[in-house]
Fold this sequence. Notes:
It is built from eight helices and three strands. By secondary structure, the chain is mostly helical. A three-stranded antiparallel sheet has the order 1-3-2. α3 (51-63) packs across α4 and α4 crosses α5 (80-93).
Amino acid sequence: MERKSTPNLNWSQSVKHSPENIIKFATRLAITSDLYRGIIEKRLTAHDLTPAQLAALTHLARRAMPLRVSDIARAIDVGQPAVTKMLIKFERAGWVTLSGSKQDGRVKEASLTRDGGMHLQKVHRSLMPELPSFLDNWSEEQLHHMTDELKSLSNFLETVQKLDVKA
């Protein structure tokens, strides 16, 4: 899937923050993302999962409804044939059910099973067992605030991703 870049904006006219602070933020975000991704990729091997497979399971859990293979592929930015293979693997493991769409029987839809949800929770807990003790230094308010900010950032990034796909 070829992506076109978004247009360059004149930062001094478009935003209220200095370009230097935006660059510091973007740099820290990139470093954090790379560190987290590296740890997760390494630890996922113990569960015989790839980051894309974890993303597919997580997307199914988050949406909590039957999803078409093409919608999952688009959401996790992976080709439809690869997602189909993942879902077949998950079905064999009992983590998802695959069925024909009610609107079009030729279209496959996937749903996370109870076992799949339990497995996903187990995987997530094992990926970063150090996190609870790190977060012990935070108040509940700080944790909720950071979670809200990360959700806002994720929503923004999903919007940018959608714009890139359309371009």
